[in-house]
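Budget justification aside, the reviewers requested a transparent look at the raw inputs and outputs of the sequence design task funded under Objective 1. We therefore reproduce one unedited record. The lines immediately below are the structure tokens for a 326-residue chain.
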């Protein structure tokens, strides 16, 4: 039977609605590095313990004594429920069943936002110029399986990350086309339409179906993005343009709500794939289209997080910070 690794080693996980990412975070001389980074698809997997066992079985090293699991859903640190899935998480059960001496559950956007301040130019792409206010809050959003939102107060080693459920606010339509889209989705889904209903993988499919006049016929995300990136006019291109406009508006709205004059970081699995189709000038105009508050948004930069391991590193940072404050 394998023993446990040194106290400074930590199992970290980033659990979304579609994929699970795992790694071993090793801290030495004040620096955290990731080892054994692994991604598994969640489809067909019954529960989180099954997925965790799969990762642990793949390791050829001593098992960490501590774990920090970032979950795409609300959590109190001890229990969590995956918002876009059925998996449940319990820190006490993780310690009992897997032998961890310490286990912490955090929101996935707490993890992502915790790692943002340590990003460099190699891990991001700026899509809007601006001059952030030093020390001001950062806004972190991310369309993926769902739509995550967080705020980073006093970014840096002593920062405070506030996870929110901002992706579930009502969709704010501006143009007649956006109002028509919102009405069509309301009639189809029979519920209020949130930002996440359109700014997510499933949302991209919904926009495409409505624009094509076939609300009940959802095409794969891959088909839509390939059309959009193929050049020329296509339903995929129109869909992606509408998606990016709505994302820019939502990002600007979130900045105003959070007072995030430190700028915006956009993560998630969708936008990095769409960067070749992004009209940065149009994105900046939609982001700043805020009437009397236009200048407020015009001054701020927007970056896309292109590094896929930011949330894993952020989970390690959040774990250490949480335990240091206990």
């Amino acid at each position: 039977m394998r023993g446990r690794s040194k106290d400074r080693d930590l199992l970290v996980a980033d659990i979304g609605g579609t994929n699970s990412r795992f790694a071993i975070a090793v801290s030495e001389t004040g620096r955290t590095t990731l080892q054994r980074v692994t991604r598994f698809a969640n489809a067909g997997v019954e529960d989180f313990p099954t997925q965790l066992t799969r990762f642990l079985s793949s390791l050829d090293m001593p098992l960490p004594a501590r774990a920090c699991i970032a979950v795409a859903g609300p959590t109190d640190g001890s229990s969590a429920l995956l918002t876009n899935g059925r998996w449940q998480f319990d820190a006490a059960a993780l310690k009992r069943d897997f032998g961890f001496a310490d286990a912490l559950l955090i929101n996935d956007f707490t993890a992502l936002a915790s790692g943002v301040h340590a990003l460099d130019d190699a891990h991001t792409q700026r899509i809007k110029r601006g001059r952030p206010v030093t020390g001001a809050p950062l806004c972190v959003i991310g369309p993926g399986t769902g739509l995550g939102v967080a705020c980073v107060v006093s970014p840096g080693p002593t920062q405070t990350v506030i996870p929110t459920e901002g992706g579930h606010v009502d969709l704010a339509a501006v143009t007649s086309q956006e109002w028509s889209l919102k009405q069509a989705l309301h009639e189809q889904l029979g519920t209020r339409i949130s930002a996440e209903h359109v700014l997510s993988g499933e949302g991209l499919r919904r926009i495409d179906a409505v624009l094509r006049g076939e609300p009940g016929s959802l095409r794969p995300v891959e088909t839509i993005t390939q059309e959009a990136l193929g050049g020329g006019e296509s339903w995929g291109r129109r869909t992606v343009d509408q998606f990016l406009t709505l994302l820019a508006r939502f990002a600007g709205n979130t900045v105003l709500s959070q007072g995030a004059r430190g700028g915006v970081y956009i993560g998630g699995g969708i936008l990095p794939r769409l960067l070749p189709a992004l009209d940065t000038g149009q994105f900046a105009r939609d982001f700043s289209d805020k009437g009397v508050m236009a200048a407020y948004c015009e001054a701020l930069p927007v970056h896309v997080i292109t590094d896929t391991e930011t949330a894993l590193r952020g989970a390690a940072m959040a774990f250490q910070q949480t335990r240091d404050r206990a």
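The CA atoms of residues 107 and 114 lie 11 Å apart. The first strand starts at residue 9 and ends at 15. Computational costs for records of this kind are itemized in the attached budget.
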